[in-house]
Amino acid sequence: MVFGYAVGLDMTRRDLQLEARDKGRPWDTGKNFDFSAPIGPIRPVETGGHVSAGRICLTVNGVTKQDGDIADMIWDCAETIAYISRLRPLDAR
To answer: Is the separation of the CB atoms in 52 and 34 below 8 Å?
Structure first.
């Protein structure tokens, strides 16, 4: 059962990622830093339904960096959740 949906941003510190790569170390330091995955508010399914379409947009200092529609994703939300749930437990602790 899905409680709700939110838009999130998976950020990468390229400086740390490239430094680790150049030293032959795992690149995860470029992903594991404070505030590396901010998300917006969660919209409960009971108030907004399941997500199948809708605009998602990223702007940085007023400049649009990404702009698209959920309907254009390669795998829809249900497929993505089903796949991830086979790799990691999903719960609301």
So the answer is: no
